[in-house]
Design brief:
The protein has 203 residues and is an all-alpha fold. The chain has eight helices and no strands. The longest helix has 42 residues. It starts with a helix and ends with a helix.
Length: 203
């Protein structure tokens, strides 16, 4: 009986590890969504202590210093890869997105802003068709229509509390975020990119 104990322990450990690995992606995804959502609340609060431009500069500077610090610590080159692509992605997904979402938070509520910014997947589907020539099937169109209808029910744009401008800025933020994502994918199709150098360079 005692000779079976190590085997049983090994089997139990293996089963526990497989169960953990199965649920780990879901747990990480839930954590990511939570951090994304709470990020808008934090930005709304911190905007009370800084102007929109100052807020944007500080956020971008912290991200840049962190990324370049990691590059140096790992011995990677800090010269940006494919500067033109990096500038295109950075202009869209960093500057224009950051400016639009900041203005939306200044004038509107954090909750509605976060929902409207996440129109991003709709824009990705449309921009991918245009910029990447990706197929746009009938099922994809149906899914988008259903998702858009659900989004409208959540946002209730016919109840314009706070005005049209913050809602427009939030939607534009989603558009710029999507454009940056599509441009990033197009850049990877032109050749391999360093996963740290390219994001640092686009800032």
């Amino acid at each position: 009986m005692s000779t079976l104990n190590p085997a049983r322990r090994l089997a139990a450990n293996l089963s526990a590890s497989l169960t953990a690995s199965r649920w780990l992606p879901y747990a990480l995804f839930a954590g990511l969504v939570t951090m994304w959502a709470y990020n808008y609340v934090v930005m709304k609060v911190t905007l009370q202590a800084a102007t929109p431009i100052t807020h944007l500069i500080i956020r971008t500077a912290i991200g840049s210093v962190t990324l370049f610090g990691v590059l140096l610590a790992r011995g990677h080159g800090i010269r940006p890869q494919r500067l033109r692509d990096a500038c295109q992605v950075g202009l869209s997904s960093n500057f224009l997105y950051g400016l639009a979402v900041t203005l939306a938070l200044v004038a509107g509520a954090a909750g509605r802003t976060s929902v409207l910014v996440f129109t991003m997947p709709f824009w990705v589907a449309l921009l991918s068709r245009w910029l990447l020539a990706e197929p746009f099937s009938r099922n994809a169109r149906r899914a988008m229509a259903a998702g858009f209808a659900g989004l409208m029910l959540i946002v209730a744009p016919w109840q314009l509390h706070g005005g049209v401008l913050p809602m427009l800025c939030a939607v534009l933020a989603g558009l710029f975020w999507a454009l940056g994502s599509v441009l990033s994918k197009r850049a990877t199709q032109r050749g391999q990119l360093d996963s740290l150098n390219f994001p640092a360079g686009r800032r």
